[in-house]
TrEMBL record:
Its cofactor is Zn(2+). This is Glutamyl-Q tRNA(Asp) synthetase. L-glutamate binds at residues 9-13, 45, 173, 191. It comes from Halopseudomonas formosensis. A motif ('HIGH' region) lies at residues 12-22.
Amino acid sequence: MPASGYIGRFAPTPSGFLHFGSLLAAVASYLDARHQGGTWLVRMEDLDTPRNLPGAAAHILHTLQTYGLHWDGEVLYQSERLDFYQHTIEQWLDSDLAYYCNCPRREIIAHDGVYPGTCRTRRLRFAPDHAVRIRVDDRPLSFVDRLQGQVSQSLESSCGDFIIRRRDGIVAYQLAVVMDDIAQGVTNIVRGADLLDSTPRQLWLYHLLQQPAPRYLHVPLIMRRDGEKLSKRLGSTPLEADQAAETLFRALRLLLPAVPDELRRALVDEQLAWAVEHWCPDSLPATRQILDPTTLQG
């Protein structure tokens, strides 16, 4: 562990190449770690193998390096850790903290997205097409986000017992991300505000695993004027290596106040060095979304 005690991470999904929206999340995470003299890890969230794009993981790593975002240690691939997740799932099934479920999606939709607990007492046995759900209760789960402030949610009323292994056998994001963050000693998580509402589910899993939760910083999503996430449509275009300095400068202008114009002509390492020194997440608006200034022209 670094002297600062700070361990952060960036965890892309290789279902596509790195685009501008995901670059913003990576840069924010990197700056927060380096500003505090901490370690910055990269983890590939590649569990959903049918959606993984061939070559995407390698392209993401190459792009991060091109943009000066050099990580510490080896890259962890979730697809190589299936036994690790499955061991905990089996323990929770044996202790009745989790149970098998064969409810169709339409039943959850009929209850406004909140699972009604249909299979809670059915004692279903294993079948290849059964999901696994974790039991929740009505206690409020709260945390103070470093930017967004107090967040509180009751899982029983907001989502109900949630899935930790899907019907197709794929381990759910909520479980894998928590187990890997614990295993890697992650202390601080910086990510997009679209994941803010899923954080209480992760807090519940930290509680069951008897581990402390990290500190969270959810940065606003950059939206187009038409209300679409920047990661969609034009924003999903793969980043180009020969435009790294220009694109990084644009990202820094969105994440930091008063970025000097002369930094536009600097190399990516020089831009990042300036940004690490001047990183101040408190200067970001405490909202979930902000408009991309480039879409406000005209």
